[in-house]
Amino acid sequence: MAAENKTALFRELLSDARDFYLPTEVRELEDNPSPLCFLREHVMTNVPLVIRGGVKHWPAVEKWSDEYLCETLGDKTVTVSMTPNGYADAPVGEKFVLPHEEQMKMSDFLKMLNNHNSKDVVYIQKQNSSFTDEFHQLVPDAASEISWTSEAFGSTPDAINFWMGGNRSITSTHKDPYENLYCVVRGSKTFTLYPPLTLPFMPYQMFSLAKYVRRCEGVYDIVDEKTVDESRDDNDIDEVVERVKHEGKVHKDETVENNEQKNDPGNDIKTGEEPLKSSACSIPKVPWIACNPLKYDARYQTFFDNSRPLVVTLQAGDVLYLPSLWFHHVQQTNSTIAVNFWYDMNYDAKYVYFKFLEKLSQPRLSSLVS
């Protein structure tokens, strides 16, 4: 089938979805829905929902001040992501760059977060159920599950994560294979959402996997992930890739040269003190969405012409149900805290249709090995 014919069909598919079931704005409720209503009207239809004040009863909403966190966790060592620009897990030039990570006391993290003159952007974003692991002392102030959600899904959460950062921390556009209940405890977060049927118009590109290595305040190298630790084996690479939020598969066999990095102007970022040897080395490749949906770029005209995002802002105590496979970009205000609950999605007809659409519209993604 000719490319222009496929594009026309993709547009028609998205148009039909908008006509029949996709909302023009995110539905809002003032009370938690019953498990049956939630399952029937949102999970089965795969459409988002906001519950205003859904977790306002949590003690955390009132208690989690910096003073309380310092008193409760001040000497505890936590994992902190650090970048020069606030974009952790995001494209920079031709590379997909993971954040620099440091272990530090919670009290030191709070000092860095509140130092608005700092050239480092710090963010607590470790996944793999960080809330019940590194931050388990805070669980009594919140919850280990949301009862009506667990009843609807028929399971407990796969993971519960703790997030804390300032307004310079931005989450690049991606999707997750999870049913996500996102609860803002402090501050506010703005989600820009795109339904899964936007997939054909998402400007995916292949990026070499790299990471930031901090040299001093505000100064970072961008180092190919394979060269950060030459002893790292493929199992270690898989662990690193988990932080890519399951967005796509990773190709470990592609050979690339260590070309000069093209960086955004104004960032004090270098690509390493010394270039790699002239011989090519194996560097994992990551598929990721190349554009910032909030900044028009003529190179991605097709995306901007065909996308109609839903934008919603959560305040302290609000809950967002973010359905599986929905693309989302996230911004936040100063010193925002959130807890989210990941429930594994059902790999049913919805998933099969999505993978079929992926094969038709993004064949490079489907051809990669897991």
Automatic annotation (TrEMBL):
Source domain of life: Eukaryota
Region named Disordered = 248-278
Q: Basic and acidic residues composition bias: which ranges?
A: 248-276
Instruction: Give every JmjC domain span.
Output: 127-358
Write down the InterPro entries for this protein, in alphabetical order.
Cupin_8, JmjC_dom, RmlC-like_jellyroll
What is this protein's name? JmjC domain-containing protein
Source species, please? Clytia hemisphaerica
